[in-house]
Amino acid sequence: YDKLLSIVSWSFLVSLIWCHIFTSRREILTRIESVILGIVTSLSKDEAPVLALPKRSSWASVSFDTAVGLQMSSGCSVTTIRSDCPASATKFAQIVKIISVIYRLVQSNSYATKRDIYYNNTQLFGSQRTVDTIVDDISCLLKIPRRSLHVLATSKGLISGHLCYLEEDGTRINCHSILCTAYTVCLSVCDIVSSAKFIMIVEKDATFQRLLDDHFCTKLSPCIIITGKGVPDVNSRLMVRKLWDVLQIPIFALVDADPHGIEIMCIYKYGSVAMSFEAHSLTVPSVMWLGLLPSDLQRLRVPEEALIPLSKKDEGKLNSLLKRPYLTSQPDWQKEMELMQQSKVKAEIQSLAAIAPDFLTSIYLPNKLRYGGWV
Prior knowledge:
The chain is of the alpha/beta class. The chain has two domains: 2-152, Arc Repressor Mutant, subunit A, CATH 1.10.10; 158-371, Dna Topoisomerase Vi A Subunit, Chain: A, domain 2 (3-Layer(aba) Sandwich), CATH 3.40.1360. The protein has helices spanning 2-7, 10-18, 23-44, 89-108, 114-120, 122-125, 128-142, 205-213, 216-219, 234-247, 259-270, 279-282, 294-299, 312-322, 331-343, 359-371, and strands at 50-54, 62-65, 69-72, 78-82, 112-113, 151-152, 158-161, 164-167, 172-174, 183-184, 189-193, 198-202, 223-227, 251-254, 288-291, 308-309, 345-346. Strand 2 and strand 3 (69-72) form a beta hairpin. Helix 3 (23-44) runs antiparallel to helix 4 (89-108), helix 11 packs parallel to helix 14 (312-322) and helix 14 (312-322) packs antiparallel against helix 15. The longest helix is centred in the first third of the chain and has 22 residues, at 23-44. The protein starts with a helix and ends with a helix. Belongs to the TOP6A family.
C-alpha cells in the first residue's frame, strides 16, 4: 500500500488534526475526515481500503416526487471501489487525490476549477471527463452540494432580460440593456431585482440569439430568457431554480419538437438521474412546455420539407421518455409525445421560419403567451 500511503500523505493527515477553520465549513471537512479515517484505519489493519459510491446513473436508485422531481432514494445501491482490484485501483487513487484537493480548498477557503484539478495531474486522471465525474461522485458520497466543495465549473449558460443581481465577488450585473447582450450564468447570485412577468428557458443558443436580436424581452412583456446551450450545466439549472425561488413567476420552456428537446426540458423540470442527490436545489417542477409542440406542427401546417423523420435512435429515446415515472403526472405532455410517436416526425424551432422569417418572435410566441398555448 505504499502508493496509497503516498497519496494520503502524512502532511495531509496532520492538517486534518490541527487545522482551524470557520464553523460554516466544519461539516464539510468533518465528512471528508470520516472518509479518510476509514481508509487509514483499513491500512493500519493491513486491509485493502474500499469506497462505496452511490450508483448515480441507475434508475433503481431514484424515486419520483411531484413536488421535487427525481431524487435519490435513501437505500440506493452502491458501487464498490476497491484499492486492491486492478479494475478499480486507479479510480480509487483518483478519488482520494481529488478528495485531498477539495479538503485543502475548503480548509483554506480557496477555489479551483475542475480544469485546474485535471491539469494538476493529467497522467493520473487521463481526461477532463474523469475529473468531472469524480467530483460529482464525491459530492454524492459526502452528501454535500457540489458548489460547496469549492470546485468551480466553467459556465456555458447565458441570461438576458429584465434582471439585476449581485455576483459572489460583488459585481452588480444589469441584464436589461438596449443592446443585444447576454451575460454568462454564474454559480452564485444574490440581491435579485426584476420586473419580469415570466422566465423562458430556451434550448438552443441560436434561438436565444435570435430572441436577443429581435429585442424579444422588451417587445411583448418584460421577461427573462436563459439558455443552457443544449443539455444544461449545473450553473444554469441553479440559476433557473434561484430565479423561481425569488421571483415566483411563470417559467416556460422553448425546445425543439423532438425527443432530445423534451428530455432537456425534463432535466430543468424534474432533474436528472445522475444529479438526483441535489434535486431540491436543481429542479423547478412548475416549468411549462410552451413549444415547439408536436401538435403545433399540424395546427400551423408547418411545410413538410421543414419536418424531419424520426430516426431509430429518436424512437428509442421517445419510448424511454414515455416510460419515465413523471409522465403519469403530465397527461398533456404524454399526448404530445404520443402524437410525435404516431406522426414519426420531429422539427426544430427554426422550422417555423419556413412559414415566415419572423414567425417565431412576431406571431408564434406572442400568441402562445397571450392565449395560453402551453401544456
